[in-house]
Design goal:
Low-confidence stretches: none
Shape: elongated
CATH superfamily: Structural Genomics, Unknown Function 30-nov-00 1gh9 Mol_id
CATH topology: Rubredoxin-like
Number of helices: 3
Strand order of the largest sheet: 2-1-3
Mean pLDDT: 90
Largest sheet: 3 strands, antiparallel
């Protein structure tokens, strides 16, 4: 098992991001899946994981963050004529 892990760290990797701003560590020799884009790499596994740790600081999907933000805004005043 240790040999597999050593080989694994030598492979080139990418960091991918989807439209929800979720990050993924991805092997560089694999096709990038639909809905994802490369934001970092190719690089070694350690460098890519460092990038993810530094840049993906909020694990919540973007749609959830936006919904929470919208719910926390005060309601607009009613401006209808009386």
């Amino acid at each position: 098992m240790a040999d597999d892990e050593d080989d694994d760290t030598k492979l080139p990797y990418l960091v991918l991001v989807n439209n929800e701003e979720q990050h993924s560590l991805w092997r560089a020799d694999l096709e990038i899946p639909s809905g994802w884009r490369r934001v970092f790499g190719p690089g070694d596994k350690t460098g890519c994981l460092s990038y993810i740790n530094e840049n993906w600081t909020d694990m919540r999907p973007l749609s959830l963050r936006r919904a929470i933000e919208a719910a926390s805004r005060p309601a607009a005043p009613d401006r209808s004529p009386r």
